[in-house]
Amino acid sequence: MRFLVIRTSSMGDVALAAPVITEILKQYPQIEITLVTQSAFGSFFRSIRNLQLFYPDFKKRHKGLYGLFRLFRDIKKQYRIDYVIDLHDVLRSKFLRWFFKLTGVPVAVIDKGRTEKRQVIKGKKKIHLKHTVERYYDVFARAGFSVQPEDGPWIIPATEKQGEISALLGAPGILNIGVAPYAKHALKMWPEENMVRLLNLISEKLKVKFWLFGGIDEYERLVAFQSKVISSSVVAGKHGLDEELTLISKLDFMITMDSANMHMASLVGTRVISIWGGTDPLTGFGAWKQPDDYSIRIPVSELTCRPCTIYGKGRCRRGDLACMNWLTPEKVFEKLVNLKIV
Question: What's 100's domain CATH number?
């Protein structure tokens, strides 16, 4: 039996499909899966057996409505699909699953809990919603295949990179700490000077090496950031995703915003300290299987406007970005000490 699973973006959400696909294939050996996703995300899934990756070309061959019909035909030509699992539920995936449904293939679609999330944002209910991974599990359950969640790691970095990356790490006795200081939206990003101060507080107490992660578009900012932090090295723009995942898996821990790097760290089994502002783990996007205390944020009871956004878009309604500015470097450092992280 072959499932077609659709999840083409965003990076963190694609990565979160790894534990679900891994456990489905492990617990149901009669199933094979073809995953439709972007080629840039292939590193998340290369170690998974009985999984085939199909990379659509949305810029040319599979662009537009006719391109999606061509994508349907291309998949159908290569595989006999018995069930479609839509983990994305966007316009592209709606059309693609509709083409399969017209041919009699059953379909199961993710429930993103949009109404529940709006209620959290509007302050009507400050409750902890299902995690995205759990919502992915639910889609397979509706198709008749429930799974028992297992412990990670769920992303296994490429083995051929292990020796090369190990050679980069600091000498014995030095703490290797990953840092992803930026995020796509301002409501998810701690002021840069706060992060610089936090890292300097850590380096005053411990022998450390900081590894700076981010997107290729953040490279210049990270180079400038590096000049402000001793014993730091920029990773972004110098290594591919395979190498980055391998390096993250070897870190003592990682400090991130609410970003794809947070998800990558948790999925390779590395401790991750995440700093939250306008968004919140309440809405189901926290670091998978990490202790709640590792998500550092101003409590909702103390700052009732939090969370004010699901994905980080928009502007601070107060005008002072209190959710980030109230988190001083000293407070975050004290939290790390109390958690015995440093």
Answer: 3.40.50.2000
Q: Is the dihedral of CA 330, 331, 336, 337 positive or negative?
A: positive
* Dihedral angle over CA of 311, 315, 320, 323, nearest 10: -10
- For 280, the domain range is 161-338
Q: Is the full-model pTM beyond 0.90?
A: yes
Q: What share of the chain is helix, strand, coil (3-state, %, to 5)?
A: 40, 15, 45
In a domain, 24, yes or no: yes
Burial level of 163, CB count in 10 A (0-12/13-18/19+)?
exposed
Of the pLDDT bands very low, low, confident and very high (cuts 50, 70, 90), residue 159 is confident
Omega before residue 153 within 30° of 0, cis: yes
Q: Are strands 232-234 and 253-257 parallel, antiparallel or unpaired?
A: unpaired
Report residue 88 as tokens: 């994305």
DSSP E strands in the chain: the ranges are: 2-6, 32-36, 51-54, 83-86, 107-109, 175-180, 208-212, 232-234, 253-257, 272-275, 295-296
Number of domains in the chain: 2
Helix (H, G, I), strand (E, B) or coil at 189: coil
* Cα Rg of the chain (Å, integer): 21
C-alpha span between 244 and 258 (Å, rounded): 18
Determine the longest span between alpha carbons in the chain, in angstroms. 64
Q: Yes or no: say if 112 and 135 are a contact pair by the CB < 8 Å rule.
A: yes
d(CA 335, CA 99): 51
Q: Specify whether 216 is located in the same domain as 315.
A: yes
Which one-letter amino acid corresponds to residue 237?
Answer: G
pLDDT digits (tens, 9 = 90+) for 110-144: 999 999 999 999 988 889 999 999 999 999 999 99
CA 62 vs CA 40, 42, 55, 75: distances in Å: 17, 18, 10, 11
Q: Are residues 222 and 302 in the same domain?
A: yes
In contact, 253 and 284? CB cutoff 8 Å: no
* Separation in Å, CA 298 to CA 193, 303, 332: 18, 7, 11
Among 292, 248, 273, smallest CA distance to 332 is for 273
